[in-house]
Amino acid sequence: MTGTPGILFAVGSQKPAASNSRSLADYLAEKLRQRGVPSKQIHILPLVRAEERRNELFAAVDDADFLFLVFPLFVDSQPWSVVRFMELVAAHRRSANAGPMRLAALVNSGFPEARHNHTALAICRQFAVESNMRWAGGLALGSGAVIGGKPLPEAGRTVRPVMKALDMVADALADGRDIPAEAIALMARPLMPNWIYRNVATLGFWWTARKNGVSGKLRACPFSSPVEP
Ligand SMILES: Cc1cc2nc3c(=O)[nH]c(=O)nc-3n(C[C@H](O)[C@H](O)[C@H](O)COP(=O)(O)O)c2cc1C
């Protein structure tokens, strides 16, 4: 450790600025600040892309005593930049014989069922084992798209349970406890009935296609062989 101990939020969205992951990390960081717990945030993608920024990445991790990964689910797993981050940090901590720190993760997915995120959380737990970190708990959020990249307090009533779950997390971390089971359960609760989410998502998908002039091609199969049905 080279600085004030605190929590490092490592945000793993592929989006450069506003993202659902960033909104979640920002909200929790603010709640922790209100409870006197300092935190810092890094955006993983530019740090793993640029080799010359590796030291910046490692210094941020070395300065923290708690790493909190916040990222979206991509094809049932972490985005490539988060996988790369975990590989780099694990190798760095092993070669530096780094002392123990805690790890937690919050994964948000587009599909409404939070359980889609469980494989990604299991990968995080294995990362903890291989990096001399102690697992402090994992949160899974379905229907992440309802956040719309906005700050959570401005994202509407639907995300109130998400904020409540993060308030519980802030209370626990400020007390030195791990992520409480009640917060994990509340975060995983569906934000709305599945049929509403599916219909709204389908409409949004069609609307995006229309804006891009391809609404008539939604069932196109450009890579299928002409002999296949
Ligand atoms: C390339 C790609 C792959 C995705 N794969 C999944 C997936 O397997 N399951 C899922 O539920 N959502 C998936 N999503 C949706 C994202 O997880 C979801 O939109 C998330 O809220 C984005 O978070 P962000 O704004 O922090 O990037 C995918 C999105 C993209 C762009």
What do we call the CATH homologous superfamily?
Flavodoxin domain
Q: By helix and strand content, what is the structural category? A: alpha/beta
Average pLDDT reading: 94
- Ligand roster: flavin mononucleotide
Q: Beta-strand level of the residues, as a percent range?
A: 5-15%
Strand arrangement within the widest β-sheet reads 2-1-3-4-5
CATH topology: Rossmann fold
Oligomer: single chain
SSE string: EHEHHEHEHEHHH
- State the CATH architecture: 3-Layer(aba) Sandwich
Q: What general outline do the C-alpha atoms trace?
A: globular
Uncertain segments are none
Major sheet details: 5 strands, parallel
Q: Level of helix content?
A: 40-55%
Distance between the termini: 61 Å
Q: Assign the CATH class.
A: Alpha Beta
What does this protein structure show overall?
This protein is of the alpha/beta class and 229 residues long. The chain has one domain (7-195): Flavodoxin domain (Rossmann fold), CATH 3.40.50. 44% of the residues lie in helices and 15% in strands. The protein contains 8 helices and 5 strands; from the N terminus they run βαβααβαβαβααα. It has helices spanning 20-34, 44-49, 54-63, 80-95, 118-130, 160-174, 181-188, 194-211, and strands at residues 7-11, 39-43, 66-72, 101-108, 133-141. Strands 2-1-3-4-5 form a 5-stranded parallel beta sheet, sandwiched between helices. Helix 1 (20-34) packs across helix 6, helix 4 packs parallel to helix 5 (118-130) and helix 6 packs antiparallel against helix 7 (181-188). The longest helix is centred in the last third of the chain and has 18 residues, at 194-211. It starts with 6 loop residues before the first strand and ends in an 18-residue tail after the last helix. Flavin mononucleotide binds at residues 13-15, 19-21, 72-76, 108-111, 116, 144-145, 149.
